[in-house]
Design a protein that fits this description.
elongated; single chain; mainly alpha; Arc Repressor Mutant, subunit A
Amino acid sequence: MKLTTAEEQLMEHVWELEEAYMKNIIDSYPEPKPATTTIATLLKRMQEKEFVGYKLTGNSRLYYPLVSKSDYFSKQVNKLIKNFFGDSALQFASFFTKETNLSQAELEGLRKIIDNEISKKKQ
């Protein structure tokens, strides 16, 4: 399941905080801070989508992520590859390296990552 842009922004704060009360989440936003009702609505929707859970501590809810950032973005990238690049990671990598204006240092870093992954696959 996918999050909306507003939900993804909120989820970034939840991932960063790991566990937080609504006040902590709102405080983690830059000014102008979102309304409490907005965050409450987003958290409720994200609970229904099973991205966020909570523990009751007294009358307060301590929110925490149910989905890791890595898992979420991995699924989104794989969906992107499937939908826009014919399920070809090679086509995606080719597009990414040609169209994103990577610097020489970034391309060399990417090459090291690829070389490391190739070495792991050979073992």
